[in-house]
Amino acid sequence: MIHTALAVAAVALAAVGITGAIAQQDAIKARQDLMKRSGQQMGLVNRMARGQEPFDPAKVNAAFDAWADKAQKLPAAFPDNSRTGETRALAKIWQDRAGFSAEIAKFGKDVTENRTKATADLDGLKAAVPVVLNDCNSCHEKYRRPQT
């Protein structure tokens, strides 16, 4: 009876550990996917702004949709159990939640405020893209480990 109870307890502890590791990896993967999608959209609008692709208001609007989605999801994308693993997130995210949240809020505000201008015409896009890109760069400089 005691052996059975110990075996059940060992299996339960192992399951909790595995579940925690999976949850950690899921959170990291989810935020990496969110960032990748955002980066792809930034590449697209940058090519439009440079004249390398034709200006397409629908595609610009889709980019702003992706960024608005990112701004909404980012605060929850860095749970405490995702501090370690295959991530470029710096510990400063968890140490400076207020500063990190302020960066995200500014990004979300700038996305909202620049959408109409960006989708109106090429000149509007050229004015709006640097605002959003600066928000991304500002946050990455403070809270993301450089790629090696």
Could you explain how this protein is built, in words?
The protein is mainly alpha-helical and 148 residues long. It has a single domain (2-143), classed as Four Helix Bundle (Hemerythrin (Met), subunit A). It contains five helices and no strands. The protein has helices spanning 2-49, 57-73, 92-95, 97-120, 122-143. Helix 1 runs antiparallel to helix 2 and helix 4 runs antiparallel to helix 5. The protein starts with a helix and ends in a 5-residue tail after the last helix.
CATH superfamily: Cytochrome c/b562
Number of domains: 1
- Spell the H/E element sequence: HHHHH
Fill in the CATH topology: Four Helix Bundle (Hemerythrin (Met), subunit A)
The whole-angstrom Rg is 20 Å
Q: Which of globular, elongated, flat, extended, rod-shaped describes the shape?
A: elongated
**How would you name the oligomeric state of the polypeptide chains in this document?**
single chain
Q: Under the CATH scheme, which architecture would be assigned?
A: Up-down Bundle
- What's the story with the biggest beta sheet? none
Tell me the strand percentage band. Answer: under 5%
Number of strand elements: 0
Q: What number is the mean pLDDT?
A: 88
Report, as a whole number of angstroms, the end-to-end distance.
Answer: 54 Å
How many helices? The count is: 5
CATH class: Mainly Alpha
